Amino acid sequence: MAGVEAAALRDAQVLLVRGTPLSAAMIDAAPGLRVIARTGAGYDGVDIAAATERRIPVLYAPGAGTVPLAEGTIALMLAAAKRLTELSAIVRTGSWAARYEVEAIDLHGATLGIIGLGSIGQEVARLAQAFGMIVLACDPAFVRADEAPRSIEPVSLDELTSRADVISLHCALTERTRGMIDRDLLRGAKRGAMLVNVARGAIVQSDDVLLQALREGWLSAVALDVFTHEPPDPAHPLLSHPRVVCTPHAVGLTQRWSARVFDLLAEGVTRVLRGERPSHVVNPETLDPASTLRR
Q1: 233-292 pLDDT, tens per residue?
Q2: How far apart are CA 66 and CA 116, in angstroms?
Q3: Which of 43, 147, 186, 276 lies 20 to 30 angstroms, CA to CA, from 50?
């Protein structure tokens, strides 16, 4: 931890975390810290155990980014299906006749497999059905088969990957899902399927696995807003592959989303500082007066 960071943390009572991981060492460097607010629905970058031990509530903003992330997913899906990266290169390089060599596909009638059926996954399903897609889903975290909307067919992970023309990742990063999309799973996927990931890069075993899947034809295209390491190495051959569409973990960052997130977090932080109970707390036990956590 750099000296400048340590000095900045020393007097902090509130930490707003956006992208940068917050380690136990950083939390310990802020002796007066009273609340941590994490933008977005994910909070895997925050050391929750360290915050909880210090009795520091960690706030987050579930639901605020549902629509922009779902729209971003569809945008990436369309870009991959319509081969926009390759078609754009044809125009820019003056290879006009090559347009006949690029085979785009239709989403209408295609099968979408959604892994992670939270609010974002369900909104993606709703939008995809407007394109006439058949939607399968599985959730490795918490959604039971009887909880899935009637318009979505609940299946196992193996069945989903074997049937889906498009696999879209929307699950949280946990010890169970880390590296879940690996070589064995992709080898068993429907030949020529596309993969879209706007969740967390580490759900995929590695960028090398995705590159191998493209080179060996397990996947026909990959669309990524997240990467195993961020920022990714610009020299990695995955990023220059013609059938990869990528964005810098920003596909859901819209002005409306940002305003909504910061409004929710500001309200929550204000409640904590007033001694009131906020909504959307990762570790609500820190707010229990009877808790034996370290003060």
Answers
A1: 999 999 999 999 999 999 998 998 889 899 999 999 999 999 999 989 999 999 987 665
A2: 13
A3: 276
